[in-house]
Write a structure and sequence with these properties.
With about 300 residues, the chain is mainly alpha-helical. It has eleven helices and two strands, in the order ααααααααββααα. Strand 1 and strand 2 form a beta hairpin. It starts with a helix and ends with a helix.
Length: about 300
């Protein structure tokens, strides 16, 4: 019952998940091509997808950055890391954490997100990826929205662990320039990592879905990266939390790197020994695990 309540609270009533689902459905009706249009690649409909994603990402990340960091409307209240954000330094592109994060998020992140979305649209239109309509099975149609975060939990955990191997960490290191994070940090990644990250869409070639599911899936990946990297536990106004945003679980990952590779939807980190709850005991376990890995 506790698990059920947690999942319910993650969706209802005013939640990031539900807001992203609403944005995805609205985008499908008012800012997307039709399947008939996507049968042939065209700059027109691909440009529409890119423009929609670019504008939406700028609005969400930009608004949260202004609220929490530029104007500091909450000060440091409910901020996970007391150190100042953003920072400057030679490790960042343009010597600026914000400009670095914006550049990689928009130039690489939004571009690859949009390109892969266009690829699946084309695949659905030409029969390479199965499609599902509202009339086929309404219960399953709705259930897919709730199952996408569960798939994301599985996919993200193992891809993230792969990115922390010696072979691929040189790409993931760009994201870990951010030991403290802000909204623009969420998609600040190397293009190679973006390909791995948004590669989650492979599920659409195995499971028949609707374009609205595809839009939600990729928006969920992109926009939840923004909200979970705000650096704050939530948006508080007049002494009340209005929206839950941050994820302490992932904030710890940015602090210590080799722990908390997944998220909270499914306890992969607990099951595979990489969980860190911020305590000294967890830090000691992490050090012992890393020492054992080096010995092997």
């Amino acid at each position: 019952m506790a698990a059920f309540r947690w999942y319910f609270d993650s969706w209802f009533i005013i939640t990031i998940n539900l807001c992203i689902a609403g944005l995805a459905v609205a985008s499908y009706f008012w800012a997307s091509p039709t399947l008939a249009q996507t049968e042939t690649f065209s700059l027109g409909w691909i440009g529409l997808i890119f423009a929609r994603n670019f504008i939406l990402y700028c609005i969400v990340a930009g608004s949260l950055h202004l609220w929490f960091h530029a104007y500091a409307m909450q000060g440091d209240d409910k901020k996970y890391d007391p150190r100042p954000f953003p920072r400057k330094g030679r490790m960042f592109t343009f010597n600026s954490q914000v400009l670095d994060n914006m550049t990689w998020s928009l130039a690489s992140g939004v571009t690859i997100w949009s390109a892969l979305e266009a690829l699946v649209w084309w695949s659905m239109a030409n029969g390479y990826a199965g499609t599902l309509t509202w009339g086929d099975n309404r219960v399953w149609f709705i259930a897919i929205f709730f199952l996408i975060p569960v798939w994301e939990s599985l996919y993200f955990y193992w891809i993230h662990r792969l990115l922390h191997t010696n072979a691929l960490y040189r790409f993931h290191a760009l994201h870990h320039r951010n030991t403290d994070v802000g909204p623009w940090s969420g998609l600040s990644m190397h293009p190679v990592e973006h390909l791995f990250y948004f590669g989650t869409i492979i599920i659409h070639f195995a499971v028949a879905t609707h374009p609205a599911h595809l839009i939600f899936h990729l928006m969920f990946y992109a926009l939840s990266a923004v909200t979970t990297h705000t650096g704050f536990e939530g948006l508080w106004f007049r002494n009340k939390k209005r929206v839950h945003l941050g994820m302490f679980h992932h904030q710890i990952h940015h602090r210590y790197f080799e722990c908390n590779y997944g998220n909270l939807d499914v306890p992969w980190d607990k099951w595979f020994g990489s969980f860190h709850d911020g305590t000294s005991a967890s830090k000691d376990k992490m050090r012992a695990r890393l020492a054992a890995r080096k010995r092997t």
